[in-house]
Amino acid sequence: MQLSVYLAGEIHTDWRNQIQQGAADLSVRFTGPVTDHASSDDCGVAIMGSEDQKYWHDHKGAKLNAIRTRQALAEADIVVVRFGEKYKQWNAAFDAGYAAALGKSLIILHGPEHQHALKEVDAAALAVVETPEQVVQILRYTLTGQLP
After folding, report:
1. pTM above 0.70?
2. Is residue 112, in this structure, part of any structural domain at all?
3. Burial class (CB in 10 A: 0-12, 13-18, 19+), 14
């Protein structure tokens, strides 16, 4: 069995690399958003033309990014959503809700400082963890039945 895992959320740390490296020996295909912040923000105007107003600039980018995100979430077996410490990641919350609405197996990754703020998101998840290593252990258990 091969799993398709979508890694959503925070883009300012290397948590995705930690999970991908930890799961390198597993049959997992990882997908995720464009993590280059400038490319993600500017994709709409780069492809469809410039905008004078920032709202429309952002609107175009959000819609193009949604094409990628919707497709990847639909194809995912498991969705991992990371909430970082530094920023309020509204997009991560949206991805978690969308994945839950699709009935996807949802793993939420965040520190204890977000427990109260994310209680509803956490309640929709099948697992809530604090480290990328715990995500890897869940993937390993899912594929092999092996405990750490």
Report:
1. yes
2. yes
3. exposed
In contact, 42 and 18? CB cutoff 8 Å? no
Span 57-76, pLDDT tens digits: 999 999 999 999 999 999 99
CB neighbourhood size of 74 (10 A): 12
Domain annotation covers residue 38: no
The rounded distance, in Å, linking the Cα atoms of 16 and 34 is 12
| Residue 80 confidence class, pLDDT cut points 50, 70, 90 | very high
Provide the number of structural domains found in the chain. 1
Q: Is residue 46 part of a domain?
A: no
Q: Give a yes or no: residue 56 inside a domain.
A: no
Q: Which domain holds residue 133?
A: 3-33+75-144
Q: Can you state the angle between helices 15-22 and 132-144, rounded to 10 degrees?
A: 30
